[in-house]
Amino acid sequence: MIYSLATLLCLSAFYAFAMAKTSHYKSVFGTRPSQKKSQYINNLGWIIILLSFVVNLSQAIGYGSLMFCGQMALSVTLIALCLTYQPTWLRSALYLLPMWAIVLAALSLIL
């Protein structure tokens, strides 16, 4: 359950990194982000990726870092495929990713 949460956090981080780029943001939302908004999204992405790394390392040092590398590869691939073929799908990810992260965090605390 914890690795699912870490994967979701990693996916959220790379979503934020993609949305910090003007061309990706414009293809998803149709407008350009301001410089301040782009910097905020980029900083948020760094915070989330570090949180994902900490969650992975909390499980096991060696195996957690290996899982983190795999999660990053999976996340980048999914975001790249969505941006290439259906960028409008990522608009709904803005709402779904935080919701699922909260659900998984609550489930991992309960179980």
Mean pLDDT equals 92
Cα-to-Cα separation, first versus last residue: 9 Å
Unreliable stretches covering 5 or more consecutive residues: none
Q: Using DSSP, what is the number of strands?
A: 0
Main sheet makeup: none
Percentage of residues assigned to helices: over 70%
Q: How large is the count of helical segments?
A: 5
What general form does the structure show? Answer: elongated
Order of helices and strands: HHHHH
Cα radius of gyration in angstroms: 14 Å
Structural class: mainly alpha
What percent of residues are in strands?
A: under 5%
What features would you describe in this structure?
It is a single chain. The protein is mainly alpha-helical and 111 residues long. The chain contains five helices and no strands. Helix 1 runs antiparallel to helix 5. The longest helix has 25 residues, at 35-59. The chain is elongated and about 40 Å long. The protein starts with a helix and ends with a helix.
